[in-house]
Amino acid sequence: MTDPHGLTGAYALHALPDAERAAFARHMADCEPCRQEAAEFAATAARLGLAATVTPGSALRERVLRRVTTVRQVPPVGRPVEWARRAGVRRAGALSRWALAACVAAASALGGTAVWQYERAQDAAERAARAEQRADALTGVLAASDAKSRTVSLPGGASGTLVVSDGRDRAVFLASGMAEAPRDKVYQLWFSDGGTMRSAGLMDPGRTEQAVLLRGLVDGAAGVGITVEPAGGSEQPTSEPIALMEMPA
């Protein structure tokens, strides 16, 4: 690795071979500019990762079908073009009636689809707004001028970086190479407060690379732990931590 300063983007995108990644992680522990740049790249990747396909609720279709019957079709405007009075007029008239019927059917279907899409768009917009708020908070921590970080080794060759902003009193955990959580289990993050554990949110069980904005304020916590919990999380840890990280100094 001849120029480690040029590998921050590849590191954030997990595009380095294992040997180079480990070497760069060691370099980054002593290089504040590289830590900052890698954190900013990771924030951008995390922001893009928050964009997810939204599945409409099961009750949405029933609501749409009920509303379709109340959607009033717009009456035709103007007079239809008169066909020339010649042989074939009857056939042309019959064809135009079939075309008109098809148009009306299509308009009705589009009307129902429009209502469905409108309600789905509203739901998606609300979820997108919440995701945008989380992304802004996450990016704010990683890009904060007072951000401090600590990188540790995790089981299975994974690594984790804890980034804390004292000014914002928030923390972000960046995971790299973590094994997927066991079936019906989830990784849960905890603030360590003088021997007690306070839930800091859940990680995505199906992703090995992720950035997580810890839930709640740091509020003087001494460190952060990770446990394996039943799906949905627990109020208190039910297993021994697989990792305990001190807050970066």
TrEMBL record:
Residues 7-43 form the Anti-sigma-K factor RskA N-terminal domain. Its main location: membrane. It is found in: Cell membrane; Membrane. Signal peptide: none annotated. Residues 100-242 form the Anti-sigma K factor RskA C-terminal domain. One of its GO terms (cellular component) is plasma membrane. Transmembrane segments: none annotated. Pfam families: RskA_C, RskA_N. GO terms for molecular function: sigma factor antagonist activity. This is Regulator of SigK. It comes from Streptomyces cadmiisoli.
